[in-house]
Specification:
Keywords: Membrane, Transmembrane, Transmembrane helix. The chain is α+β, with helices and mostly antiparallel strands. It contains four helices and 17 strands. Among the domains are: 1-34 and 247-292; 94-214, no CATH class. It has helices spanning 3-26, 133-139, 170-173, 248-286, and strands spanning 40-42, 46-49, 52-64, 78-99, 103-106, 109-114, 124-129, 143-150, 153-159, 165-169, 179-183, 187-190, 193-201, 204-220, 223-227, 230-235, 241-245. The model is unreliable at 68-74 (pLDDT under 50).
Length: 292
């Protein structure tokens, strides 16, 4: 190929390639944005949905390792923004199950749960006080700390007024346990709550009560979150605030524009790379030795 002709073509493709690359370098990629100041919140802000008060309890921005760059970009961390919304349900339902013949603590006292075994469905159970024999013996300065067994029966060794040891039957020495019966639907005070006997079965008892409960929902950038039966899009415009919007149409339009921009950008990169390849090829052909 004549070098003069090659120079002309090289100049042509150089102009085309430089033009496409300049468009890439100067073009500004569109970004998601929402001009909704009333729906923009910082950490600690509150808002209401259907009468329920919500609090933006957390906003974080962390750089995660990994992630690659685009054309001409280097490998680096990716900035990930997230958050959390919390709210209090003032009358959440709680339940707790007590197994039959186990010990539970009610208002600081230990009781044994006793369900009378029946062939049908029981409807009541007893809370029986537990007798801590070791503690009673330790509190009595006149009694030995352990019981003794004589002829198959247990006794407590007690020093009388004369200092003589006498054997008192354990059943006489220790107090009789007391019990209180509760039926399904009745209430008792448990852990500071007025609890209802929700169900009684042969092997267990279920209590139920209402008390406040704090619920949380996570927020991810450009992710959906359901609050009070309403669906919102969470968008973090910066590291300190979050927008909760229902303008999904605007979001779809903006994401379509971004996708279209990247399609054009990739096309321009293709033109730039193709022109560079053709220029290298033309230069190589121009300097090939002539056969004559």
């Amino acid at each position: 190929m004549q070098r003069r002709a090659a120079a002309i073509y090289v100049a042509l493709f150089l102009v085309i390639g430089a033009g496409s690359y300049s468009l890439i370098a100067t073009a500004q990629a569109p970004a998601i944005s929402f001009e909704e100041p009333d729906n923009t919140y910082q950490q600690g802000d509150t808002f209401q949905v259907e009468g329920q008060t919500y609090t933006v309890s957390d906003i974080t921005a962390e750089v995660e390792s990994g992630g690659g760059g685009g054309h001409g970009g280097g490998g680096g961390g990716e900035l990930v923004r997230s958050g959390q919304v919390s709210w209090v349900n003032d009358s959440a339902r709680y339940t707790e199950t007590w197994d039959n013949n186990t010990t539970v603590t009610v208002d600081g006292e230990e009781y044994r749960v006793l369900v009378e075994q029946t062939s049908g469905n029981p409807t009541a159970f007893d809370l029986q006080t537990t007798i801590n024999r070791t503690a009673i013996l330790m509190d009595d300065p006149d009694a030995d700390n352990e019981t003794v067994t004589r002829d198959g029966e247990q006794y407590v060794v007690v020093q009388n007024e004369n200092g003589e040891a006498t054997l008192v039957p354990a059943d006489e020495y220790f107090p009789e346990p007391t019990s209180e019966q509760y039926s399904e639907g009745e209430t008792l005070q448990y852990n500071g709550n007025q609890s209802t006997v929700d169900a009684v079965e042969n092997e267990s008892v279920t209590l139920a009560w209402n008390a406040p409960r704090t619920n949380t929902a996570g927020l991810s950038n450009e992710g959906n979150v359901s609050l009070g039966g309403e669906t919102y899009l969470a968008f973090f415009p910066n590291n300190d605030s979050v927008v909760l919007t229902q303008n999904f149409e605007s979001y779809r339009t903006q994401t379509d524009n971004i996708d279209e921009f990247h399609v054009y950008e990739n096309g321009l990169w293709g033109v730039t790379i193709l022109c560079a390849s053709v220029i290298i090829l033309l230069i190589g052909l121009a300097y090939l030795p002539s056969r004559y």
